[in-house]
Design goal:
- The structure is a single chain.
- The protein is an alpha/beta fold and 400 residues long.
- The chain has a domain of 228 residues: Spore Coat Polysaccharide Biosynthesis Protein SpsA, Chain A, CATH 3.90.550.
- Helices cover 54% and strands 12% of the residues.
- The protein has 15 helices and eight strands.
- Strands 3-2-1-4-7-6-8-5 form an eight-stranded mixed sheet.
- The longest helix is centred in the C-terminal third of the chain and has 33 residues.
- It is globular.
- The protein starts with a helix and ends in a 6-residue tail after the last helix.
- The relative contact order is 0.14.
């Protein structure tokens, strides 16, 4: 039994040390070896189909539509459609006077099933843009995505930013998004590596969308499954951090726990199903992009990574002090990177730092009912009705 514990200790030590060291190496490499962005002038205008799956939504759709109406892109080069699944009829009647709606009657209420209903109409477009019902698209979003597109581009992920950061729960939710935006999207893209999908705010070639969406049959986590399927086919995800959509953040702990059940379930499912497969495929094909994406898929959520690291450090003082010293050094270095990211985002505060354990506690609470995500989409209720005008006024320098 003692030997089994010691073996488990060494496996965990090697794993968390590798994940921490890998992130540190990427961060340093991106700082000093980042690729220069190509000049992106005079690109041919692409035709975009914007799809907005909406399940049991109401007033929030009015603000979503307002933002789309302000898109600064030739109107004959894009079309936007709400895929309405059991949405409030009064709101739909109000919207459809000047906006296109497809009313759905689905047996399984999920984002992926809603998107599948649009497959017959994507052929007339170059790219499909997927938005969530609560997303407020920046007026320059399509222009920025268009700048990123060349003959070798198949998927472009924009950046999801918080609509507002007033409550502590909103800040805690946004904090994790900001960290993942850097670690999994912006930093790898500077090195020419693939990014990850955010679930919305991305554009994908229409023919690829039609084929890829039909392969997915889950209730949730379609973005994680989609990105893994793409990478197995060696289709990387390009990142454009100037293509912005504003996303509603969770406003209370119960909603956070509910959302995280779905997120954690598909995170672990994706890791088990695709992580090792991607790493092995990358090794066999000498494809570092696939290896990188496999590592990202296998990496545990950052709160769990911290918890395991701290646990190993304490246990190490009884088994092997040197391992504790090594892991402590890596954890401190990684924490400094996190602090630099959050400092850049102007979100750091003493109150936020004191409440960081709340993220881990809520994720542990979410684990107890994680199985619900297998057969339930665990819809997040959207409450924030802030307008795109107010956000742009507040962030007037977003595109300066």
């Amino acid at each position: 039994m003692e030997q089994l514990i010691i073996m488990l200790y060494w496996i965990l030590f090697a794993s968390v040390s590798f994940f921490l060291a890998y992130q540190i190496i990427l961060f340093i490499s991106a700082k000093y070896l980042s690729l220069k962005r190509k000049e992106e002038k005079g690109r041919e205008l692409q035709k975009f189909l914007i799809l907005i799956p909406a399940y049991k939504e109401n007033q929030i759709l009015l603000k979503t539509i307002e933002a789309i109406k302000k898109i600064n892109y030739p109107t004959n080069f894009f079309r936007a459609i709400i895929l309405a699944d059991e949405c409030e009829e009064k709101i739909l009647n109000q919207i459809e006077k000047d906006f296109e709606i497809i009313r759905l009657n689905l047996d399984r209420h999920s984002k992926i099933e809603s998107l599948k209903q649009a497959i017959p109409i994507v052929d007339n477009f170059d790219f499909v843009v997927v938005l969530d019902a609560d997303n407020l698209i920046h007026p320059e979003f399509l222009n920025e995505i268009n700048k990123s597109i060349d003959a070798e581009t198949f998927v472009v992920q924009g950046l999801r930013l918080p609509k507002k950061l007033k409550t502590l729960d909103e800040k805690l939710d946004a904090l994790t998004d900001m960290i993942y935006n850097q670690l999994d999207r912006i930093i790898p893209s500077k090195l020419g590596l693939t990014g990850t999908l955010s679930g919305s705010g991305f554009a994908i070639r229409s023919n690829l969308f039609a084929n890829a969406i039909q392969e997915i049959n889950s209730f949730g986590g379609f973005d994680k499954i989609l990105q893994s399927n793409l990478m197995l086919k060696n289709i990387p995800i390009k990142i454009n951090s100037n293509a912005i959509v504003y996303d509603e953040k969770i406003q209370n702990s119960q909603s956070y726990i509910k959302q995280r059940r779905r997120w954690l379930y598909y995170h672990f499912l994706n890791a088990l199903k695709f992580g090792i497969k991607l790493v092995l495929s990358g090794i066999l094909r000498f494809n570092f992009n696939q290896i990188h994406f496999g590592i990202v898929s296998l990496r545990p959520p950052l709160t769990f990574l911290y918890f395991i690291s701290i646990m190993i450090i304490f246990i190490g003082f009884m088994i092997n002090v040197l391992t504790s010293v090594i892991l402590l050094f890596l954890l401190v270095a990684f924490s400094l990177i996190i602090i630099l990211i959050l400092k850049k985002e102007n979100i750091l505060s003493l109150k936020l730092m004191v409440n960081l354990p709340k993220i881990f506690i809520n994720q542990i609470r979410a684990l107890f009912k994680i199985g619900e995500a297998r057969s339930n989409s665990l819809k997040t209720n959207h409450l924030d009705e802030i307008s795109i005008e107010k956000i742009l006024e507040r962030n007037s320098n977003s595109y300066d």
